[in-house]
Amino acid sequence: MKNATIPVLRERIARGETSHEAWVVQALEGASSDAAKHVFTQLYSDAALAAARHADASQRAGVVPPALAGLPVTIKDLYDVAGETTMAGSVVCAGEPAATADAVAVARLRKAGAAIVGKTNMTEFAFSGVGINPHHGTPRNPADAAVARIPGGSSSGAAVSVALGLAVAGLGSDTGGSIRIPAALCGLVGFKSTQSRVPRTGAFELARSLDTVCAMTRSVADCLLVDAAIADTPLAVRHRPLQGMRLAVPRTLMFDGIEPAVAQAVDRALGVLSASGAIVVDIPLAELAEIARINAPGGFSPVEASAVHRARIGAQRARFDPRVAARVDLGMSVSAADYIVMQDRRSDWIGRVEGALEGFDALLCPTVPIVAPAIDALATDEAFFKANGLLLRNTFAINFLDGCAFSLPCQRDGEWPVGLMLSSVRGDDARLAAVALAVEAALRA
Prior knowledge:
Order of helices and strands: HHEHEHEHEHEEHEHEHHHHEHEEH
Radius of gyration: 21 Å
Helix content: 25-40%
Strand content: 5-15%
Strand order of the largest sheet: 1-3-2-4-6-5-10-11-9-7-8
Distance between the termini: 22 Å
Number of strands: 11
Structural class: alpha/beta
């Protein structure tokens, strides 16, 4: 199942070559393997097998199952499951009240018949793009068998569960890049929708202005199937040829500090798109250089996270990941007046960037400017926060825009995973999905 997309699995099951139950059994066995160490915080073996067997029984009865029915899916540890305390990758929440209902996204996955295999590990409270977790261990990036490398975060376990073939999709979240960063570093497709598309009810909050409920899979089409389930309505995607699409490449900020392996893969991808008939246009988009100034008084994520965790950090600071606590601290002293100014300046900035992108079908750049560093290389705070800043820089710009984005693998076989990010403005998800399908087809040709 490792490289199989959802339609391929559906075809194999329909032909009687395998069954939903067999795939779920394989996923549960893989979840206990050494390769999956630190990927899961909890397994739901009985419920997953029950969903798979129901899908098999329906198919035997002549009922065509929905796209996700009976297939293994994972959910990030920040989503409520009824009867459980939501831990969000931490130990601090132990003893807090259990959830009384499933998160909306989880309930919708169950409604779609998905076999939810388990909850996946994450950066504590989703507050980093690296994926290191000192409480539960760090899932190892499957792209390198020799060196333990970061998977990216904060949806670290979600990415590795899909990359190892233990799930067709990993439900994660994206506040500053937490879907797209691990997707890029693990060679997957990640889709960050417009924030309002999927309800956040039952998702442990990091930053309410930015948090987005979304997922990663092995293809754009698979992402759209999962998005249709969790949004409770499919995007109306009109398939378009790549010929004549206008694709903007921003030359401010997004290519700064790019590593050679990333530059090579992205430049080659842009060349393929141009040769396929797309109109690739370099633009300055100088507004990107303003983000740091607008976000300067603490930053939206620290300010809003400080409101979420004020009581916890006051009572249990020593139990926090120190690097998470340090980022929460950044928001503690920001005044309400400064926060309102940040909101106003962001709104103005969004309007100006939306105007600058009129006439383009998508904005293209590296998802992240570096390949996955070794976990041991980030042992010091200096190295960790430098890597974290680079990993989040490009993706955060799209959260700041309240836009939508895909990360697509653009490396060749034998190369480090590299993501190409396709982005657009808020509400443009369907049109961007058509661009992503066309770009993906060209890159895979």
